[in-house]
Structure formats: C-alpha cells, structure tokens
Specification:
Layout lengths: L1 E3 L2 H13 L4 E6 L5 H13 L2 E6 L19 H10 L4 E3 L3 H5 L18 H4 L3 H16 L3 E5 L3 H13 L5 E5 L19 H6 L2 H14 L4 H14 L3 E8 L13 E9 L2 E9 L4
Helix pairs in contact: 6-7, 9-10
Amino acid sequence: MKTETTIQGLSASLSPARSARKIIGFIPTMGNLHEGHLNLVRAARKLCDVVVVSIFVNPIQFGPNEDFDNYPRTLEHDSHLLAEVGCDIVFAPSVEQMYGKQPRLTNISVSDITNDLCGLQRPGHFDGVAVVVTKLFNIVQPNFAFFGQKDYQQLAVIKQLVQDLSMPIEVIAVPIARAEDGLALSSRNGYLSEQDRATAPTIYATLQAAEKQLHDGLELDVVLTNIRQILTEAGFEVDYVEARTPTLQKIGQFDQDIVLFVAAKLGKTRLIDNLQVKHST
C-alpha cells in the first residue's frame, strides 16, 4: 500500500491505472477509522481494481465551536487498518496542499436539502463538505465513490452534487455499520463516558420500536413524539427527531417509504442515526 501526501504524487501513482483503464474506487474520510470505514473499503474492493482512501481533517466543515483542533489524527493506526482490508493508496494531504496559501474565493452550496436536520445546527457545514469532496473528486477522478448511510444527509448532498455538476462518478451507499448492541459506529463514540456508552444504543432501539409502531398503524406524528419522549427520559438532549422521504423531502404521514432521523446529545457528544422504513401495502 502506498501513501501519498501531494496531489502530484497521487496523480503519478494513479497514472498506470488510468492508462490501463482500471476501475478506481474512492472513499473520502477524516481518519480516526472504525469498522464502518473499513466496510466502505471492503465494498470498494469488490467493485474496483484500485482503491484509494483519503485521510484529511477538513477545516472548512467545522463550525467555530466544534472540535477541529482536537479531532483525533491517527494516520499510522489508520494506515495499518487500511492495509489489512486491501486499500491500495492512502492520500493524506496537508491543509496547505488542499487549499494552498491564497484565500479561497469559490464556494459550493447545495441548497434546500441542507437547510434543516444537521444543516440547521451546523451552518456552513455542508458547504465545507461539498467543497472538499468536489476537490477530492477532481484530484482522484474515481469511477465509484463510497459513502456510509449513517451520514444520510451528507450522502444526499453528495448525490445531488454529482448529479447537478455532471460528475462522471457513481456514488455507492453502504449500509450503517453497528456495534453488537446496535449503536451506529462513529468516530465520536470514543468521546462517550462509560455510562453514556451504555445508554447510547437506546437511539437505535427506539427507532426499531418506531418502525414497528408505524407498521402497526400508529400515526407518524405520534411515533415521532414517542421517540423524542423516550430519548429525553433516557437522558438525551434531543436536537431533532424527523421523518423524510428518501430524497429528504418533508412528509406528514406514513404513506410511502420514509427515513426516520435522530440527532441527540449525550453529555457533550452529539450522536446521529437513521432508519429506513419501507411502506408495506
């Protein structure tokens, strides 16, 4: 496995694959990898000849009160994990390599679907994601890009970006990786205290219960209220509990396939999760 830290170095490493018309798969990450990230690599390995993983903590997607400076940077450990699951090239650029020394005057904004859910609490976050992913797509030029469904809103933003800008890339969504107790795997789980870690799986259990309630005929607004109440009583500070169509449009009743979304804090750790619920006719 190669590690490249410059755009020129990565381009040189990928040149033979491009010349041979090999299929390139790409997974953008911010490092501090867990099993969810490794599942993305495994999915890429099945479809692609060459698998590239970027590790870059992107400063422009962090808000002023978020943890950019303290975000774990574990390149050596991450590289070891990636080598074990078949990654071919790690791209680990510096901030200067990605953004240069001159001020950035270009922004990319995907409207509408970024206005609420996590976008409401994290203004500018998805603009930062859109910029860095566009830059990485331009640098790597993959055939396929792999994203986890835990960050469902981010996945929708990337799909919209690729569609609107006619990028010749197919975005592949990979199901949420979970711990044995159901907690969605996340780099932020490491911030949970022992007590909070024991409470955290309540989110997924509550979503599963909500799915059953919907199929039993309970009204959607009642189900959403129940989720919020159960999580609040369990000690969560609920940010939002929402239902959307798979394309993130608002919905008032359970008359089609939907996605249930939860964002909530335990202590100082913000957790997100979602569950796709099929509408049975």
